């Protein structure tokens, strides 16, 4: 009988471990799903299985939580950050990997150093900076989508650039040399060779940048107003209004959380193949 020398654990042990992990991962998700269609009083009593179906919770949240406006703001801001950070990161990484110049090593070390700065330390400086900028320009800055976009882009670019640096190092430089022999410029090489071959790394950088803007509550709660509020802040405000007093609207709260998590799940499912390639083949190792 042929044995698999690469298998470290017996098959039944692997199945048991996977089953235990699935229980830990899926139990909270199933609880949210059941609570979203259950009666609020039953959820407050600790019931796991729904005693009655309240599918209207998924219709009510669009008015009680203001989910539509929050989703639109999050998609616009997080999507813009993902697209711009990936394009700027691949161009910056191409220069850092393919060219030698004074200060190149300092820039690379700076990219790593920026990852160690907690975002909470930058909240007050960013707020003061935008407040002063608003006074100088004579226009509103805080409370706009583009202010939140600039804030997220500041934090997303260092990580995205480092991801692309590590990925481009795995691409052979002979491709550039062959293109230059044919008369291609650096811009043509970047556009026609580097970017098409870097899709896995670009997807990784884009998704991490998208998640940065989608999941953030700290900066969005300070830098937005009710019109530019993201979906994470909308959920936070809705949850805060349920504290104290009568029984919270657990069904609508859980339904809102599931709908907000759905775009991220779909994003991972669609780009799963690129994520695996970007994190293993030539990206983050």
What is the element layout, followed by pairings?
Layout: H1 11-36, H2 40-44, H3 57-64, H4 67-98, H5 104-114, H6 123-137, H7 145-168, H8 174-181, H9 186-197, H10 199-215, H11 218-223, H12 231-241, H13 250-270, H14 272-280
Architecture overview:
- This is ABC transporter permease.
- Belongs to the binding-protein-dependent transport system permease family.
- One of its GO terms (biological process) is transmembrane transport.
- InterPro entries: BP-dep_ABC_trans_perm, MetI-like, MetI-like_sf.
- It is a single chain.
- The protein is mostly helical and 285 residues long.
- The chain folds into two domains: 1-54, no CATH class; 56-282, Orthogonal Bundle (MetI-like fold), CATH 1.10.3720.
- It is 72% helix and 0% strand.
- Helix 10 (199-215) packs across helix 14.
- The model has no long low-confidence stretch (mean pLDDT 85).
